[in-house]
Amino acid sequence: MRTRNMLLDRRDFMGMLAGTAAGIALPGCAVQTARSRSASSHRLPNLIIIFTDDQGYNDLGCFGSPLIKTPNIDQMAREGMNFTDFYVAAPVCTPSRAALMTGCYPQRVGLASPQLVLTPQSTIGINPKETTIAELLRGRGYATACIGKWHLGHLPPFLPTRHGFDSYFGIPYSNDMRPPSLMRNEEVIEQHAIQETLTERYTDEALRFIRANGRQPFFLYLAHTMPHTPLHVSERFKGKSARGLYGDVIECIDWSTGQILDALKTLNIDKDTLVVFTSDNGPWLVMGENGGSATPLRAGKGTTYEGGMRVPCVMRWTGRIPASTVCSEVATTLDLLPTFAALAGIEPPSDRIIDGKDISRLMFGVPGATSPHEAFFYYFMDHLQAVRSGRWKLMFERTRHMEVPFNRVTSGSDMERVPEALYDLETDISEQHNVIADHPDVAERLRALADKMRDDLGDSSLLDPSKGRQGKNRRPPGRLGK
Predict the structure, then answer these.
(1) 39 with 320: CB under 8 angstroms?
(2) pLDDT, tens digit, for every residue of 240-268?
(3) Which domains does the chain have, with CATH numbers?
(4) I need a labelling partner for 466 at 20 to 30 A (CA). Which of 2, 291, 323, 445 fits?
(5) Mind listing the pLDDT tens digit for each residue in 349-371?
(6) What proportions of the chain, in percent to the nearest 5, are helix, strand and coil?
(7) Active site includes 62?
(8) What is the value of pTM for the model shown?
(9) Residue of 62, 104, 146, 151 marked active site
(10) Which residues partner with 275 through β-bridges?
(11) C-alpha distances in Å from residue 423, one per residue of 205, 327, 432
């Protein structure tokens, strides 16, 4: 399904989401209910992130998928909140995950380039001097577990167990990298991972962790290997979806999510647990039927159009997050670290810049709550390609190859220049109409915001390398021996 030819305005799409999730779509986020205000706060909340790999905006029933059945995540949306304008800080794996773990743009923590993503040959990873969500929470007494894809370095100094997690079970990089080795903590336990049962084994591991730690606060980071290609699913799910193998994989992940939600209810801790479901970037469109859909967004993985960096997000916390609600304010994975810190009663690191913001007011549907971000910046590697502020998104002059799906072979015509463009995302979610001529003042304001960010984090300025900037607030990645 091609997204760039889909034209849908924001009001139509919000109506579609509200109908699918039985949501209450109000300006900003829905009004907080009496039930959410009166929920029990006798203990620190459990915190769960379910993070998929290359799942598109349109690949959940509650985000409009016409073919993929996700009853458990749809129920999660009915019991919680859909975030329609939720972003990752990069349109590919490693930098996106670095942002989630540190609350920082990946450029700030040295994991945006020169390597697009880390591989089994990489000798760098997350810097031991960075503070992850897990390290913050473990310092507050949380039990912590990382299950699934890590992709912030596979060598010992960079593994989850060195960065705040009590335990690790998963493949530390993408499943198309050889060999896809399954690890427990810091040891390889399956040299060539049997991927058909990975999602189910990850789920079993997650359930064991939850059951073992139900009496104390815990943080679970469940980062599914799927639906990154090559796709794998067990026989019990194969051939079940109307969307082919890709749909089978998503429906298996939905089953997994249901297992976790059921366990929380069985243990009577669902009212003490925040669950966040989202993806690391948009769909890998060049994979065709084995890739996902970002409809009605434009493009997908590897691009800074909305389809590359806006992802589906559902948050559920029974009694705290108002049920069947929709939030249309800008929020990001950068925000999870400071938000989780606030919920746990601790402060984010004060000795460094943290880009994320506390979005708990959005989550709880506080009346009048708006995005804490004046602007959100769309980087690809070290190239600042766009900026969003409120309803407006300005994309800077670029070459045609920046618009095509990730890993497509470019031709000479792909190198032609595409002019600067301004999009009104409230009326043009599909980024089809350049309105820069009608709003020169808006474009000028967004250029000024971008210029400040270039001073802060730099810009490789691919169109004119002589105009590139290094940025003054960047930190290095981790390196062996340092």
Answers:
(1) yes
(2) 999 999 999 999 999 999 999 999 999 99
(3) 10-32+41-363 (3.40.720.10), 376-479 (3.30.1120.10)
(4) 445
(5) 999 999 999 999 999 999 999 99
(6) 30, 15, 50
(7) no
(8) 0.93
(9) 151
(10) 48, 316
(11) 44, 20, 8
